[in-house]
Amino acid sequence: MRGNPVVPSWHPGAGCGAPSGAGAGTGRVRARFALFVGTCAGDTDAHGDDPTHPGPAGDRVSDTAGFYDDLAGTYDRLHSDWELTVMTAGRTLDALLRRVLGDREHRLLDCAAGIGTQVLGAARHGHQVAGTDLSVGALRRARAEAGRTGVPAPLVVADMRRLPYADGSFDAVICADNAIAHLLADGELELALGEMRRVLRDGGLVVVTLRDYDLLSRERPPVLPTHVSHGEHGLLLTVPVCEWSADGTRYLLRQLQLAEQPGGGWVTAERRVLCRAYGRAQVREAAERAGLGGARWVMPTEGFFYQPVLLATRHPAPRPEVRNPAGAAASGRAASPWRP
Ligand SMILES: C[S@@+](CC[C@H](N)C(=O)[O-])C[C@H]1O[C@@H](n2cnc3c(N)ncnc32)[C@H](O)[C@@H]1O
Questions:
Q1: CA of 112 to the centre of ligand 1 (A)
Q2: Mutate to test the pocket of ligand 1, among 20, 59, 63, 68 (most ligand atoms within 8 A of CB)
Q3: Edge-to-edge strand ranges of the sheet holding 250-260
Q4: How far is CA 87 from CA 13, 60, 118, 213, 215, in A?
Q5: From the CB of 135, is ligand 1 less than 6 Å away?
Q6: Looking at the whole model, is its pTM more than 0.85?
Q7: Helix/strand/coil (H, E, C) string of 78-130?
Q8: Whose CA is nearest to atom 13 of ligand 1?
Q9: Distance between CA 177 and CA 209 in Å, rounded?
Q10: Beta strand 200-209 with 227-231: parallel, antiparallel or unpaired?
Q11: Which domains are present in the chain?
Q12: Among residues 25, 86, 136, 173, which one has the fewest Cβ atoms lying within 10 Å of its Cβ?
C-alpha cells in the first residue's frame, strides 16, 4: 500500500505509549477504542488539568498492546511505502551490524518488532533474527508478512522488560521507532535496557531509536505530522494529536484516523495511549546504569536514520563508529534512513 505523508520524514504518529505492566488482556477497560463517526472519546476531564495523568480510571489510556493491536491492520499505511521502508531498514541494519560487529551474519533480536519493519528487513540479509513485541495483533501481522515474503523469523509475544531468552543469546538487540516511549514508570527504561544487555553476548550491540524529545518536550506541538495514505478504497488520514503534561515529560497521544468510504463518506476512529518523552541524556544515563558501555547518540544530521539512534555495547568497548553505514552522505538531511 502506498501513501503520501503530508509532512514526510518523521513518521509513526503511531508510537508512543506506556506499557502499563500487565498490558493487554487483564480485563481492564482498554485504551483501544474504535469510536466512530465523529465522536472522540473525550473523557480527559476525569484527569483534571493533566491529560497525561492516568487518573482514577487507572492506566486505561495507556494500554500499549491494545493500541497497537488496533493499529496493526493499518500500521504500514503510516509509511509512504512500507515495503521500501522494510528494505531500507534491512540494508541500513545490515551495514551497521557488519561495520560494528564484523562482516558476517549476526544473531539479532528486535524486542519491539511490531509488524516487522526492521526484523523482516534484516532477515532478508541473512541475519538470524528473532522478534518480540507486546502486541499480539502486531505480531500476527508480522507473521503474515513474513509468510508472504518467505522470510524465516520466529516471532514471540513478550515484554521487553522480561525477555524470554537466555543470557548472551544475541549479537545485537534493536528497539526501533519510539518503542521505549511506552515505558512510563520510573525504572522501567533501565529494566528494559538491562534485559537487552542480559541477552547480548559480550561486545554485543544495542540499537535504540527514539523521537527527538529534547526538542519536542520543549516545543510541545499539539499535533504531529499527518500521514496521508491512498488505499484501495480511498484516503486514510492518520493525525497524531498530543496533549502534553505541563512539564513536557509526558503526553497523551490521541491518534485520529479518518477513512474514506467507498460510497464517499468518512469513518473516524481514535485510539489513545500515554507516552513518556525521554530526553537523550536520560536514556544514556539509564543505559549506563543498566551496564551498557560506550553509549552515544547518532543524530539524523549524521545521515543514519530519521530519528536519533542510541548505540551502546555490552562492554565498555570503543565507541561504535557509525557514519554512513549504508553509504549515505555524512551531513545534512538524513540520506539513508530506514524509511525512504
Ligand atoms: C511505534 S511501534 C514500532 C514497531 C516497529 N519497531 C516498527 O518500526 O515498525 C512501537 C512498538 O513497541 C511495542 N512495545 C511497546 N512497549 C513494549 C514492551 N514493553 N515490550 C515489547 N514491545 C513493546 C509496541 O507494541 C509497538 O509494536
A1: 4
A2: 68
A3: 2-3, 227-231, 234-244, 250-260, 266-276
A4: 21, 36, 9, 27, 29
A5: yes
A6: no
A7: HCCEHHHHHHHHHHHHHHHHHHHHCCCCCEEEECCCCCCHHHHHHHCCCCEEE
A8: 112
A9: 5
A10: unpaired
A11: 2-77+220-276 (no CATH), 82-210+278-313 (3.40.50.150)
A12: 25
Find the helix or strand (DSSP H, E) in which 286 lies. helix 280-289
Q: How far apart are CA 275 and CA 61, in angstroms?
A: 10
Which cell is 218 given? 520543549
Which cell goes with 99? 561495520
How far from the centroid of its chain's Cα atoms is residue 68's Cα? 10
